[in-house]
Design a protein that fits this description.
The chain is α/β, with parallel strands linked by helices. The protein has two domains: 213 residues, Rossmann fold, CATH 3.40.50.300; 75 residues, no CATH class. It is 34% helix and 28% strand. The longest helix is centred in the C-terminal third of the chain and has 19 residues. The model has no long low-confidence stretch (mean pLDDT 91).
Length: 298
């Protein structure tokens, strides 16, 4: 399947926004998570890998294939599910997939039929292939999006925020599909949903404001917080005081009260409970540290 290598990738838009600031990533076969908040530069990076826009400087290689210069060759081996996409509501799933397959150069009719049947089976859409796309639920449309991305058996599959807006059942179904696909493809999962990366990815990066903050196995990303994470249930009016005295990573409501997660280098008093960190805690830590460094540098 090869390895996708990204080096010093930079992109600044006409309005002055620096979307990518020297991105360096190594993406091996399997499921790779790209985690970051909205506006972090994830979609810009995905569109650049997918040859839909140009970078200002930098390189992307799939083994020896120059992604930025050999765009037509890349498009033959790449599948892309964008964050937002439209379907023809009066077309059936099989009709539109057949049309898209022809556009992708799959002109042999028997071969095309066999390939599309396999794709429909993989994405659990075989029983819906003759249904109008306008009747599909959000989850069905996302599975259709994955199906069209699989046409011509791509080496790289890019999925941008695939589970956003899905109910838990559809989300689990899509997780299972992507997990199975990652055994045969490089699958890049771009998301702001931490649990998607926790459940699916063997390697990941956290990106914020166009910069890579960390690139590791998810369990290694968590290591930075070992023996340094605490939580405490507080009243809402205590939050301001807590934020002044401690490094608060996150807050959430718990049985009508506020639960705070705090990072501390030294042991805190007994009103705080030391807890085992998870990837969400590590994500908030890296984003918090990065934002803090930016503020200090200014």
């Amino acid at each position: 399947m090869g390895v996708l290598t990204i080096r010093n990738l930079q992109k600044t838009y006409a309005n002055g926004t620096r979307a990518l600031k020297g991105i360096n990533l190594t993406i091996p076969p399997g499921m790779y998570g790209l985690l970051g908040p909205n506006g972090a530069g994830k979609s810009t990076l995905m569109r650049t890998i997918a040859t839909l826009q140009d970078a200002d400087t930098g390189d992307i290689f799939l083994d020896e294939l120059d992604v930025l210069k050999e765009k037509n060759a890349v498009r033959q081996i790449l599948g892309f599910l964008p964050q937002e996409f439209d379907v023809y509501p009066k077309s059936t799933a099989i009709e539109l997939l057949n049309h898209l397959a022809i556009l992708k150069g799959v002109t042999n009719a028997p071969l095309r039929k066999k390939m599309l049947n396999t794709i429909l089976e993989k994405t659990n859409l075989e029983h819906l292939k003759n249904n109008l796309l306008g009747s599909f639920s959000g989850g069905m449309k996302q599975r259709f999006g994955v199906a069209q991305a699989l046409i011509n058996n791509p080496k790289i599959l890019i999925v941008d925020e695939p589970t956003a807006g899905l109910d838990p059942e559809e989300r689990n179904r899509l997780h299972n599909i992507l997990g199975e696909l990652s055994t045969e493809h490089i699958v890049i999962l771009s998301t702001h949903i931490v649990s998607d990366v926790t459940q699916l990815c063997h390697k990941m990066a956290i990106i914020n404001q166009g910069e890579v903050l960390v690139e590791k196995h998810p369990l290694s990303v968590i290591d930075v917080l070992n023996d340094k994470l605490y939580r405490k249930v507080i009243n809402k009016n205590e939050l301001t005081i807590i934020e002044q005295d401690y490094q608060v990573l996150s807050t959430k409501m718990f049985m009508g009260q506020m639960l705070v997660h705090v990072y501390a280098e030294s042991t805190l008093d007994q009103s705080f409970e030391k807890i085992r960190p998870d990837l969400e805690d590590a994500y908030f830590y890296y984003i918090h540290q990065h934002n803090l460094n930016i503020t200090v540098s200014r």
